Amino acid sequence: MSIEWYIVLSSLLFATGAIGILLRRSPIVILLCLELMLNAGNLALVAFSRMVGNEQGQVFALVVMVVAACEVVVGMGLIVAIFRRKLPLDVDELTELRG
Amino acid sequence: MEAVLFFVAALGALGGAIGVVAMRNPFYSVLALIVHLFSLAVLFLLLSSAFLAAAQVVVYAGAVMVLYVFVVAYVGGGEESAWEPIPGQRLFAPLLGLALLIELAIAVLASSLLALGTDGPDVKAGFGDPASIGYLLLEKFLVPFEASSILLLLAAVGAIVLAQRRREAAG
């Protein structure tokens, strides 16, 4: 398969993730959509690494996976903390920091 | 054969992504994301990056998704209400996403990438196997490797601090 197909698929996945972040209000689903966007970026990185013919892009993608895992861990900690304080799990209702 | 596999995996990835966005119950969104991640692992294999595909399945579809499932089960994945706090959100969000897609398409097409119409160079047999990735990580990218391990440690400590039970005196 030609590399451009992977790039097209990666842009489609990125746009889908962005639509999800704009559309959904549950913080869990917003984190899931963030994962979609990070994975779209990973797919583009791996495709470009194959196009150039060296593996450095794959190491970059591996680091992106580590960062995504950290983001999930901290995000889940925040969601559990929000839940413990009996606050609503809805990003439009968590407006305490609004000026 | 390769084209068939690509289109099956691409459909799985795209269907999983749309499932994540469209499912009203967060639990089904997590399951759709697992489908998406497995399809991406197949795509990584097609791009001859075997180690990354294995890491994707083990770390992402395995460990990270288990964390998601636990948290959704803990907070009780209630369905989102159909009530719209921002008027027109359901109309404008897909429009903005479409605008982003068009922008990405323009960027890809206008960049006259070398990727357009090529399969990439022929690679040797060991391309993307654990040995070569490990060699790169420990020889060339040692500082980013150590930095990411410190980041993982910080994230683990941060999650414990965030999610711990508050003491009565502190509150």
Jot down its keywords.
heterodimer, A: 99 residues, Helix Hairpins, B: 171 residues, mainly alpha, 6 helices, 72% helix
Can you walk me through this structure?
- With 99 residues, chain A is mostly helical.
- Chain A has one domain: Helix Hairpins (Orthogonal Bundle).
- Chain A is built from three helices and no strands.
- The longest helix of chain A is centred in the C-terminal third of the chain and has 29 residues, at 56-84.
- Chain A starts with a helix and ends in a 15-residue tail after the last helix.
- The mean pLDDT of chain A is 88.
- In chain B, 72% of the residues lie in helices and 0% in strands.
- Chain B has six helices and no strands.
- In chain B, helix 1 (2-22) runs antiparallel to helix 2 (26-46), helix 2 (26-46) packs antiparallel against helix 3 (50-75) and helix 5 crosses helix 6 (142-163).
- The interface between A and B is large, with 71 and 88 residues.
Number of domains of chain A: 1
Share in β-strands of chain B? under 5%
- Relative strand content of chain A: under 5%
Helix percentage of chain A = over 70%
- Helical coverage of chain B, percent range: over 70%
